[in-house]
Design a protein that fits this description.
Two copies of one chain form a homodimer. Chain A is of the alpha/beta class. Chain A has eight helices and 19 strands. Chain A folds into two domains: 117 residues, Roll (Ubiquitin-like (UB roll)), CATH 3.10.20.10; 148 residues, Cytidine Deaminase, domain 2, CATH 3.40.140. Chain A has a six-stranded mixed beta sheet with strand order 12-11-15-16-17-18. Chain A has a five-stranded mixed beta sheet with strand order 1-6-7-4-5, covered by helices on one side. In chain A, strands 2-3 form a two-stranded antiparallel ribbon.
């Protein structure tokens, strides 16, 4: 076994909020915070690939997860380093051996739904039918734990609004919480973070990348086709949202047996698909309002 | 003067909502409506350009506005026809004389913020500084009229949730209201609709396309850089949102003197930029809560 070679990442820091003076309906000037939004142009081996608009909290993990979710690289070990410089708004990705057929892989364009990933390289739908999701369950108590953990989280959303939040849970344990102006960026950042973790298979043979099989993905945004597909690609079989679902998101989730839960606030939720993965404990739901 | 030649558009119809059975927190199965989400692949003169994910309410106007807002065509008269067939999920665009340098125009990619246009061809920011917005004002009473008109609107959002709404107003008169799973689609559809209108300059010389100078653009979504830029490109100098603003949206709006108003619900709002365009009538705001 050769040792795992994780990429070197900078930790570029930039303010996440910005103060502006606004005028309200009474004609009063008031200072408020608004979220940052920055352009980050990604260069792979000195070749310009794409410009991402981001809050800027975890730019290196965002770029890593973007390359992963766009299926441009197959392993985290293919990347030698990601260097972000906010002074010029650039992320320089250095690969160990280049990316095969990058022109071909970036040729097909899909402008996806709303807050979904703005654009995907290649056709994610083609992959869907080959995905096999692991058996995994979530209890209603754990679901309430997840909703409560999100509620308690200090966030840019609370101070400045106008951002989406995504999180990864193991049961009801919060592993990582990411906010961005686009929820596609937030999920990509989580994908990048998962790749940077190592899990021991045996004490001497660690494996690069955290698996999704016993994880739950949370998003404040809607469950569009793209969010469902990305979650499945990351191997995460259960997705929870504060918001609703679209028809294509629902169809894809049903096809691959992914459990989708939406409108999750306080004790309320709707389970749209994969109901067999949710262990109902309806006595926890409280009194029914009729 | 040669007569205006508007493109021929099909009127492809598909259901906007879909009924599914969900299970709630009490373990009860209930039917609910969710919004449709469809893939529409755009072919320009038989060449595949892009796939848009859309609710599907006005696919022909969406495609027309997409081509307009991406700056792929300069005039509505450059298009001979747009034919949408939901059976195959395709929109066939026939131009009168082709699109010059289409490869070059579609080479640069920006994945924009969240619900913003997923991807833009070319660099919209480059154009921003050349934009000159017309003098236009909105009174606080008109603003309240806009918020109220939106509130009263029957919509897919009310029946199924999970869609964004955009609208175009002249003063407080609602001209068009569009919903889509992505707000970038909704604004593109409005841009397409504006191009299909004709305004008489003199009774004998009509002009293709409605101008934006005396219009107000409304969106349920956030005012990201892209939404601000698109509004400015359409010549609309005042934008109202139910949601907030990002730092780049704010900076761009200030630079070009665009009036941005957010958090507009009931009597409350915040004016982020271009305050000189808003005629305050603070006596309409009611009693201040302290």
């Amino acid at each position: 076994m050769s040792p795992i070679k994780l990429p070197r990442l900078t930790k570029a820091i930039a303010p996440l909020t910005h103060e502006v003076v606004v005028v309200n309906e009474h004609g009063e000037a008031t200072p408020i915070s608004i979220p940052a939004e920055r352009a980050l142009t990604v260069y792979v081996d000195k070749r310009e690939l794409v410009t991402l608009m981001t809050l800027g909290a975890h730019p290196e993990l965002l770029v890593l997860g973007f390359l992963r979710n766009q299926r441009l690289i197959a392993s985290v070990q293919d990347i030698e380093s990601i260097t972000v410089d906010w002074g010029v708004g650039a992320a320089a990705v250095k690969t160990r051996a280049g990316i095969d057929n990058i022109e071909e892989k970036t040729a097909k364009r899909v402008v996806t739904t709303g807050c979904g990933q703005g654009s995907v390289f290649g056709d994610m739908m083609e992959e869907v039918d080959s995905l096999v999701l692991p058996a995994a369950k979530l209890t209603q108590a754990q679901l309430y734990g997840i909703v409560n953990a999100i509620r308690l989280k200090e966030s840019t959303y609370k101070s400045a609004g106008s951002v989406h939040g995504c999180a990864l849970f193991k049961g009801e344990e919060l592993l990582i919480f990411v906010e961005d102006v686009g929820r596609h960026n937030a999920i990509d950042t989580i994908a990048g973070w998962m790749w940077m973790q190592t899990e021991p298979v045996t004490p001497v043979t660690p494996v690069a990348g955290m698996t999704g099989e016993d994880k739950v993905f949370y998003t404040t945004g809607r469950l569009t086709s793209e969010m469902v597909i990305k979650s499945a690609q990351m191997g995460v079989p259960i997705v929870v949202s504060r918001s609703g679902i679209t028809q294509m998101g629902h169809e894809v989730a049903q096809r691959i047996g992914l459990c989708t839960i939406g409108r999750a606030t306080n004790k309320h939720f709707l389970c749209y698909s994969g109901q067999d993965r949710l262990v109902f404990e309806t006595e926890l739901a409280g009194v029914k309002l009729r």
